[in-house]
Amino acid sequence: MAYDLEEQEQIATLKAWWDKYGNLTSWVLIAGLAAYSGFTGWNYYQRTQAAQASALYDELQAAVGTKDNAKVLRAAGDMESKFGSTAYASMSALVAAKSSFEANDLKSAKAQLQWAADHGGDEFKAVAKVRLAGLLLDEKAYDEALKVLSGEVAPQFAGTVADRKGDILVAQNKLVEARAAYQAALDATDKKNPGRQLIQLKFEAIGGSVPAAKDAA
């Protein structure tokens, strides 16, 4: 079928436009397709990583159940080297640290906690630091323990960190500083938190005074 005059003019206009911009348009389309392909490929990679990390975490948990600390540490090492950016790696490090502690392998326990403190998300970092500081406290490495607890911490863990600082300062017989740490822990801990009572007992044991609750009006 022959094109009418208007159609021929439209085709001529399109051809002229293509001659001028067609090459650029092709590259834009190619870039768009590449970006979409990269996006879908990244999502697939993320899903695959998560699935593999989950399977390895199950293996680690099974090793914990049989108290095979050597296998736990191997699984944790694989997790950290292959899936270090996932939450599974931080969870594995904490689990491996507990397993090593129970196996009286304190060197490995500290190494796993240090890994989580260095590489984990905010919540994992805080937990790892508090636990690592606790091990150092047991070893009387007080200055090192306080150093571990230094720096920024997620607000929801401020009370826990301050409480552990208080414990370390008491061990050093720095009671004024310890009272300040326990006071900070009390200020940062919700009154409904069952752990608050223990902090208060430690605070009062070294001469701290908690104001009496006011009667409701």
Q: What is the domain tally?
A: 2
Q: Calculate the mean pLDDT score and round it.
A: 83
List low-confidence stretches: 1-7
Estimate percent helicity: over 70%
Oligomeric nature of the chains: single chain
End-to-end gap = 92 Å
Structural class: mainly alpha
- Succession of helices and strands: HHHHHHHHH
Q: So what's the overall shape? A: elongated
Give an account of the 3D structure.
The protein has helices at residues 5-65, 69-82, 87-102, 106-119, 122-138, 142-148, 158-171, 175-188, 196-205. By secondary structure, the protein is an all-alpha fold. The chain folds into 2 domains: 28-119, no CATH class; 121-209. The radius of gyration is 29 Å and the shape is elongated. It starts with a helix and ends in a 12-residue tail after the last helix. The relative contact order is 0.06. The model is unreliable at 1-7 (pLDDT under 50).
Summarize the structure.
Helix content is 77%, strand content 0%.
From the structure above, extract its key features.
single chain, 217 residues, mainly alpha, 2 domains, 77% helix, 0% strand, elongated, chaperone
Tell me the layout of helices and strands:
Layout: H1 5-65, H2 69-82, H3 87-102, H4 106-119, H5 122-138, H6 142-148, H7 158-171, H8 175-188, H9 196-205
